[in-house]
Structures are given as structure tokens and as C-alpha cells.
Amino acid sequence: MIFRQLFEPVSSTYTYLLACPQSRAAVLIDPVMPAWQRDLRIVNELGLKLVMTIDTHIHADHITSAAILKREAGSRIAIAALDALDCTDVGLREGVPVQVGGIRLDPLHTPGHTDNHFSILAGDRVFTGDALLIDGCGRTDFQGGDPRALYASVRGKLFNLPSETLVYPGHDYQGRWVSSIAQEKQRNPRLGGERSMEDFVQLMQNLDLPYPKFIDYALPGNRQCGRCPDDLPEDLQQYCRQMQPSVQG
After folding, report:
1. How many CA atoms lie within 13 A of 2 on its CB side?
2. Is residue 156 part of a domain?
3. Could you tell me which of 72, 143, 147, 154 has the fewest CB atoms within 10 Å of its CB?
4. What's the structural domain count of the chain?
5. CATH number of the domain enclosing 187
6. For residue 43, is it within any domain?
7. pTM above 0.85?
């Protein structure tokens, strides 16, 4: 499998490029608006054809580039079938694999950060979106979030994957790139070790996090599979403006 991990610095989002070396078919997981030209350039430089984008959930901290990549490359848009977005081409359902050339992707319904969040299992690695981060997890106080559901998703589903499974998160804010199921089970300060569900619920309910600064623009934009609003304030323009080159691409 051809694999690239790409970083968008405004929202600290990881985008993942996976491609089949035989068919040259490629998929981008969680592509971000400011980085769409970079991502398409890398696809083309590797001699690949982008056939699909996958969003793990409707994001609140950035706008997906799924729609613009569909326009430019003809890729299909995949997101949770439960979200019932008009722009969806492929509805993600647990138990229904997605095939990209010779690569099998297994959607895992992992609600809790949002009600319709999906992680994507690809062989020996899992792309966990905002459900499971390195030494952390996504917040649970908006978009149908539920700490009990997230606890069940991570401890009951993700932590039951083989210990050696590599964990690739949707974000990291400290320059870390990858973890493993074994590592997160052992040392994740929110969900690892002997943390009980009640302890986790209390922890998440007392985080006292600020209101997400981009959510009021990101949610309607992402319900259209990636549209920057016309009334975006100047201080938020960076979320849609083309990014500068990053150290990972």
C-alpha cells in the first residue's frame, strides 16, 4: 500500500493518502480545504488517481475539501450514511467494506465525539478521526457528543483491535504522528488503564472547554461537503485560504 501522512497547520489536522500500487487508485481520509492543491499535487506526482475522499465525521474545526476535490479530480465523497447529506456518494456503514483498488477499508462506527463518527480500519492501521487521539480523545460537548458513547467506542471497539494496530489520529497538537492500540490502552490519560466509565464521564463533563471558534461556519460548510461561507470574518480566513507548504508535504 502506498501511504502518506500529511499535516495542515491551521487546524492541526492530519490527512491520510492511501493508494493501491497495482490499480493506482487513491483515497484521502479527512482532506482539509486549505490543503487541497497540495494533496492533489502529491496524488499526481505519485501517478495516482484520486477516486474517493472519506470524512470521519462532520468537522467543527475545519472545512473539508471533499467537494472541491470531486470537482477537480472526479473523486466520490464518502461520509456516514447516518448523516444523510445530499452531497454523499458513498454512505459509510459498519460491516460494509469500502474497496479502493486492492485496499479494503472497514468503517467502524465510533460515536461519542459526534453521534455519527466513523473510524476507518485498513489492515494493520486504524484512522481514528477525533474519537481517539494520541494520549487523548475528542471533546464530547457538541454535535450529539456523548462521553458514555465515546467510552464504549474506544474501550469496547477500538481497544479490541490487535495490540499492534497502528493508531493514526485526526489531529495532534504536539508534533506526534502515530501511536498504537497497545500504547493507548496502557497510557492514554483519559481512556487507558483502569479508567472507569463514570470517571471518564465526570472528567469530560468538567473540562470547561471554550466554544469552538470556527464551528458556526464549519458545520454548515461541511454539511455541503466543503463550502467556505461568503461571510467568513477576516480573522478566520486562514481556514479557507490556501496553506503554505508544510514540513510533511
Report:
1. 21
2. yes
3. 72
4. 1
5. 3.60.15.10
6. yes
7. yes
User: Computed over its alpha carbons, how large is the radius of gyration of the chain?
Assistant: 17
Residue type, 11: S
Residue 246 covered by a domain: no
Is 144 in contact with 115 (CB distance < 8 Å)?
A: yes
- Closest alpha carbon to 98 in 28, 37, 154: 28
Q: In what order do the strands lie in the sheet with 98-100?
A: 98-100, 103-109, 118-122, 125-127, 166-168, 179-180
In this structure, what C-alpha cell is assigned to residue 208?
470547561
Furthest C-alpha separation in the chain: 50
Q: pLDDT of 17-62, one tens digit each?
A: 999 999 999 999 999 999 999 999 999 999 999 999 999 999 999 9
247 domain-assigned: no
Distance CA 148, CA 220 (A): 26
Q: Which domain holds residue 130?
A: 2-239
Q: How many residues are present in the chain?
A: 249
